[in-house]
Amino acid sequence: LGGYLAVVYEGEIEKIHYIDSLVEEQKLGHHASNLIQAYLKWFKNTPELELLYWISMFDRPVNLSTIKSISCSETIDSLSEKLIKLRKSRWAFAVELLKDANLISVKEIDSETVLDCHPIVRDFVAKHLKVQEYPIWVRGNELIFDHLQNVAVENPGNMAELEPLFRAVIHGIQASMVETAFELYFDRIKKGYIMLSSGNHYADQACIKAFFRDAWTDLDPNLSEFAKFHLLSSAAVNLMSLGNIREAITPSLTSIEFFIQKEMWLEATNTAGPLLSMLIASGDLDKGMKLMSDLEICVSNTNNQIIEAMALNFQAYILYLCGKNSEAEQLFEKVEDILCKSEPEIPRNFPTVSSYYCKFLLDTGKQQEALERSLKTFAWREQKTWQVAIDTTSLLATDLLVLGLTFLQIGDHINAKIQLDKQVELFKSADEWLYLPTGLNSRARLHIATENFGEALRDLQESLEISLRTGARFGEWEAYIDMAQLYYKRHKYDLSSEYLKKASDLPNMDKYRFRDGEISELLQNLSSNMSKSTREHDSSSQ
């Protein structure tokens, strides 16, 4: 209101009486809307209004030089016809006037004038353009879409380089170019796969949200069928990793069913892999085994040895989790025969998973083999071999986790700490909230082994907090067991027993048997020490 008085009435406060309708509304939102509507009328047919339109169409601070470049590329009625004729000094005047009105903020950063506006202003002006000036809205977003594609690097390799493409997709959708926007997303951001190699599920979900009208199953009707179900798959993977398990299941199963109906076997298996990982992490081994059984024909129809190997890999891992080590070992060895080939004569369009086998080797007492196999995985990354043609931050973090635990078991605490710290940071950077609890639990084991009990407790408490929020029951179960180990080492036997009971009381977790030996040993130790404490107490009482 102060900015409006300063610009329109040259600061004469008594003129507020001319605009008292602005303060008759009962809600601030109405005040703001009426005030901005008044500005739009006052700035009508001016370069200031065109400049405000451009700033509002960007969803973040924007360089003045960028607006000049885009707006001056062609004459567009009511969007660039005034700006295109402006001299340099008049541009500065337009910026200053909008600043004085408190509609925009202006900063000088690295010799660039950076413009931004308050979200209320941006939202109102954007809504005005969409409703009242739709042709302007469409053409402006088309030009921003083209600009962002042009400034993006050709083959982005990290989130900073992907950011202009994410923004371009959103502007393309706002310009009603939904299929073109999807092609950009599919070809340059995802490169045909449903997961980002660099993680960051929040950024991916914020991007594709523009394709959805409401729920994560309600897509823009102008999309092709393939685009719709690829986006459903991508949304489901993001929801899983972010810990929204219930929301993830329907879009995931819906897209798998569609791909199977269309005999798109590769797409079906690509979508099923993350779902299977989620079911394991959420403590639903039965559902995971059923999904694998349902997909056997689908996997077979891919005629892809790598996919068949990864299906066996998942099956072996589930058997290992269930405590069926001999059966698991047979399947893992079949997988290794395929994974260790120098060059398969098939397309490499499916990620390979090494951490399951390495963890199996480690937990069955083969520490040296586990170390050699883990290091081989990192050698593949170094050499960029076919096994890592499709890689993700999540896969890398999991490999580091197992390597760290291997160093821990062989007594190399320095290297264990390096790897276990790295994997936690990677899980966090990639927004892998469903899997982060396992990473925190693993690092806590190092802290327990080195008697750094305060750090162990912090990691386990954080793990439990995330697990309870996301439904990562596997992480919750392991955290209870590790809490029991922590309190046993601190001679707090009652607390240790309490946490073991919490672990045993968790629904469905009785299927996970791979830590049975450790639990049995801890129970025996607790029984012995608690009996000893009782005898000592009785003796002292006498």
Explain this structure to me?
This protein has 542 residues and is mostly helical. The protein contains 26 helices and three strands. A three-stranded antiparallel sheet has the order 1-3-2. Helix 6 (119-132) packs across helix 7 (134-151) and helix 23 packs antiparallel against helix 24 (473-489). The longest helix has 26 residues, at 516-541. The protein starts with a helix and ends with a helix.
Give, in order, the helices and strands.
Answer: HHHEHHEEHHHHHHHHHHHHHHHHHHHHH
Q: What is the mean pLDDT?
A: 90
General shape: elongated
| Neighbour order of strands in the largest sheet | 1-3-2
Query: In angstroms, what is the radius of gyration?
Result: 29 Å
Instruction: Return residue spans where pLDDT drops below 50 for at least 5 consecutive residues.
Output: 20-28
Beta-strand proportion = under 5%
| Count of separate DSSP helical elements | 26
β-strand number: 3
What is the percent of helical residues? 55-70%
Structural class: mainly alpha
Q: Strand count, sense and closure of the main sheet?
A: 3 strands, antiparallel
Cα end-to-end separation: 83 Å
